[in-house]
């Protein structure tokens, strides 16, 4: 017998951060949400190990893009979330990393609020934290940088623009998301605004996962190093940071030059 939708009290939609991929880095609150959900609407970058943690009763719906195939529009994703929640399902919208960092969270919140639904947000570990930990470095360091930028290499119109002059200053640090294809553009803008060609840039692919790769480069060598590495997984560019071992090895050479 069809359910009377007027008698259904929708549950709040839970926007949950899946973290960078290692299931051990998932928060306990996120795990509880996954195991009690009726449906999990997830992005492509959420790892299979984390999806395996959902409850046995839970339906999985992929809202991400597979390779270079067709992708759902943001409007279609919004409709999927709203329709599931209005049907009475306990919905988890599962996003890679942290839902508040480059996750289009505001657009999805606007859609569910317009539909009269409530929500909760369960933060996750953003990929920048996992990537910098893999380097044995810190995002901020006394005497080097008192701020760090989390920026994206792409926006809705193509390559994202930023305050390149400020970023080009010595000692600046940034975690650049979605930057593999934009690497040459980023390199050109930074060099044009005075960044040193020898500025370290480390690429971290699949941060925290078993197939994690760390590739050290400089601003001058970045596009060539990326092309040679032929990375297919999600990658962050850690601008201004080298792996700790590489940085320590370079220190005597720097001191000799002084």
TrEMBL record:
Keywords: Methyltransferase, Porphyrin biosynthesis, S-adenosyl-L-methionine, Transferase. InterPro entries: 4pyrrol_Mease, 4pyrrol_Methylase_sf, 4pyrrole_Mease_sub1, 4pyrrole_Mease_sub2, CobA/CysG_C, Siro_Cobalamin_biosynth, Uropor_MeTrfase_CS. Coiled coil: none annotated. Residues 13-222 form the Tetrapyrrole methylase domain. Its EC number is 2.1.1.107. CDD domains: SUMT. It is an enzyme of class 2 (transferase). Belongs to the precorrin methyltransferase family. PANTHER family: S-ADENOSYL-L-METHIONINE-DEPENDENT UROPORPHYRINOGEN III METHYLTRANSFERASE, CHLOROPLASTIC (PTHR45790:SF3), SIROHEME SYNTHASE-RELATED (PTHR45790). This is uroporphyrinogen-III C-methyltransferase. It comes from Marivita lacus. The lineage of its organism: Bacteria, Pseudomonadati, Pseudomonadota, Alphaproteobacteria, Rhodobacterales.
